[in-house]
């Protein structure tokens, strides 16, 4: 069972999500929270696998709650709930440790699929939205240590990272590079370890910030492209 915690300050939103998830045989809503502080308390008591986290909440907002849960390393993966008018907050949440995000008006099937995806250990990288956010709010120089980490990537790992930055799944990357999906997973795992990041979202954020990739996942000028 996928244990889900719903954190949103609107009762109707929480109720709607619960009604949807209660219909899924592999999901169990283990708690609800109306603010970030309550979310932390419920997470500590109920140990969810996935937290549906609203950004704008009283007492403590979703970004700070995400940052604290991520820092604790409890294993809960955080799926940010947002609207189009909160782009800058979404990017801050990704930097704080969120695994991905979902629009509040997403169809039922997309919500359920997103929860299963992040519970399985994947990051939710929707090419049409996530990349737009990263491109808009990234671009700040990264630390020298981050640039040194990129230099340790093999040509294949760098190629895989650029495809991840385009929003491709492991299966799609495998098809593009004529590799087995297990081999791609190995390259992704090694790339994440070398960069010192938790998941694909964090790797993509770091890649854009450092200038390792630019719009659309292309290599930055002056940097070698994939073989």
From TrEMBL:
InterPro entries: CheY-like_superfamily (IPR011006), NreC/VraR/RcsB-like_REC (IPR058245), Sig_transdc_resp-reg_C-effctor (IPR016032), Sig_transdc_resp-reg_receiver (IPR001789), Tscrpt_reg_LuxR_C (IPR000792), WalR-like (IPR039420). SMART domains: HTH_LUXR, REC. The keyword Transcription applies. Keywords: DNA-binding, Phosphoprotein, Transcription, Transcription regulation. The modification 4-aspartylphosphate is found at residue 54. The keyword DNA-binding applies. PROSITE patterns: HTH_LUXR_1, HTH_LUXR_2, RESPONSE_REGULATORY. Pfam families: GerE, Response_reg. Residues 3-119 form the Response regulatory domain. Residues 146-211 form the HTH luxR-type domain. Signal peptide: none annotated. This is Response regulator transcription factor. It comes from Microbacterium elymi.
């Amino acid at each position: 069972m996928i244990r889900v915690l719903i954190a949103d300050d609107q009762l109707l939103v929480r109720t709607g999500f619960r009604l949807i998830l209660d219909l899924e045989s592999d999901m169990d809503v283990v708690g609800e929270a109306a603010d970030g502080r309550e979310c932390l308390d419920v997470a500590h008591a109920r140990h969810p696998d996935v937290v549906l986290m609203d950004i704008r909440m009283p007492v403590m907002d979703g970004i700070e709650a995400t940052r604290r849960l991520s820092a604790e390393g409890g294993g809960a993966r955080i799926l940010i709930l947002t609207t189009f008018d909160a782009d800058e907050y979404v990017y801050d949440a990704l930097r704080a440790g969120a695994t991905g995000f979902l629009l509040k008006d997403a169809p039922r099937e997309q919500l359920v699929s997103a929860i299963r995806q992040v519970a399985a250990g994947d990051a939710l990288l929707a090419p049409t939205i996530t990349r737009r956010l990263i491109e808009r709010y990234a671009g700040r120089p990264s630390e020298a240590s981050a640039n040194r980490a990129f230099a340790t990537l093999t040509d294949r790992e760098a190629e895989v990272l650029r495809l991840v930055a385009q929003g491709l799944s492991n299966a799609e990357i495998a098809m593009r590079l004529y590799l087995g999906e297990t081999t791609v997973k190995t390259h992704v795992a090694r790339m994440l370890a070398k960069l010192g990041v938790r998941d694909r979202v964090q790797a993509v954020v770091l890649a854009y910030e450092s200038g390792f990739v630019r719009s659309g996942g292309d290599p930055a000028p002056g940097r070698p492209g994939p073989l």
